[in-house]
């Protein structure tokens, strides 16, 4: 099998959970909380731009996925800064609320 025929996932090195966490901590330590917060703003704007371009058929889903990854990485840094447990608790509450709304909406339409 030629290199170009390999799935992309085999070409991308995988990080362990520890490497991932260590990298998040190092980014915050290296650049600082304020700089990483500003970077989150930039990455969110880039995601918005990629989504707008896609909606106008001037962008690609791959570009959107790349920007989603950037925003996710920055959000994980924010979670580390503000408390991952607190963020997880809020995310759980929000998901339960979404589930309840979806169940309610599906019952009303039936």
Task: Report on the architecture of this protein.
There is one protein chain. With 110 residues, this protein is mainly α. Helix 2 crosses helix 3 (33-55). The longest helix is centred in the C-terminal third of the chain and has 26 residues, at 84-109. It has a domain at 17-82. The chain is extended. The protein has helices at 8-11, 17-31, 33-55, 61-82, 84-109.
In short:
The chain has 110 residues and is an all-alpha fold. The protein has five helices and no strands. It has a domain at 17-82.
Count of helices? Answer: 5
Using DSSP, what is the number of strands? 0
Shape: extended
The chain-level mean pLDDT equals 92
Tell me the span between the first and last alpha carbons.
52 Å
Order of secondary-structure elements = HHHHH
Question: Strand-residue fraction?
Answer: under 5%
Report helical residue fraction.
over 70%
> Which regions have little confidence, pLDDT < 50, spanning 5+ residues?
none
Q: What structural class do you assign from the helix and strand content?
A: mainly alpha
How many whole angstroms does the radius of gyration measure? 18 Å
SSE topology sketch:
Blueprint: H1 8-11, H2 17-31, H3 33-55, H4 61-82, H5 84-109
């Amino acid at each position: 099998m030629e290199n170009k025929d390999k799935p992309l996932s085999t070409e991308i090195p995988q990080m362990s959970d520890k490497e991932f966490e260590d990298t998040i901590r190092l980014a915050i330590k290296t650049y600082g909380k304020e700089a990483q917060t500003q970077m989150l703003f930039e990455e969110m704007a880039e995601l918005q731009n990629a989504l707008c371009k896609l909606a106008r058929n001037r962008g690609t889903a791959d570009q959107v996925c790349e920007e989603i990854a950037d925003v996710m990485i920055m959000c994980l840094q924010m979670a580390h800064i503000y408390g991952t447990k607190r963020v997880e608790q809020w995310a759980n509450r929000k998901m339960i609320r979404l589930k309840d709304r979806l169940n309610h909406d599906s019952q009303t339409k039936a």
